[in-house]
Amino acid sequence: MTDSLDHDQLALPPVSRREFLSRHVLGLGSVALATLLQQDKLLATPANVPRGPASYDLLPKQPHFAPRAKSMISLFMHGGPAHMELTDPKPELTRLHGKTYQGDIAYSFIKRASKRLLGARWKFRPRGECGTEISELLPNISEVVDDICLIRSMHTGYNGHEVSIRYMHSGIPSVTGRPTLGSWLLYGLGSETDNLPAYMVMTDPGGHPVDGVHNWSNGWMPTLFQGTVLRPKNPRILNLDAPATVRGKVQEHNLSFLAQLNKRHARKHPGENDLEARIASYELAARMQTSAKEALDISQETKATQNMYG
Known about the structure:
two-stranded antiparallel sheet, single chain
């Protein structure tokens, strides 16, 4: 016959707070994470809860943190001077100027390959209070260097133009068809106007850069986030004008009828996100026929402003 056990004998041995947390930290962490996600409305939608229709527009988004930037101007100087001549001095390369490199090099163009080292031909010196070394080729930039964030640590193991440019714009060098930086910025920031494209691409008069339209591709994102090319000569935007036979009231009636058909089709086939995105893109193109011409017309600018355009 076993002896009876009192309550104190059945109780678990006491544990310290540190031991308790060490034993149950994963469970507590999951509870805390779920609470925080619920507060920020970041929990995944359960499978049995109907989701609302996807919305494709360029309205400013409500991010987790209020952005301080409203727009971005990116100057991709394709074919410009090398960074070693402008903002990234290479003292060792300059010291070895004219000598033959003794290591191995993977050439992109074997017939034009050379192992002779070429140092900078212009001098660098510290500029501004920060002391950043800038080339004598950039006297004006040197005056505002304290207001510039200059990144010298970025590099790639590729020395071919096409692959390196793709790497810079989309983040992955070996794959085409990914969204570019401008598409992601537009997706994140949105636009304050719905009559003009928010992602504009101003190309060089000499033609598109290497890799062409892939430099401003929307990738797998809706076509609304693709870059719109602004040409250096007329017509500034291709295919903006409707044919003369369908302009005016005829075009208005056609667009109205097409909108009715699209809405009817969308009601019968809910959830077709590609269709919604394409409709939004076409509607933007229709609004651009008037707004884009007004925005690109510099004849109303002052004489001083027109002189600045050149």
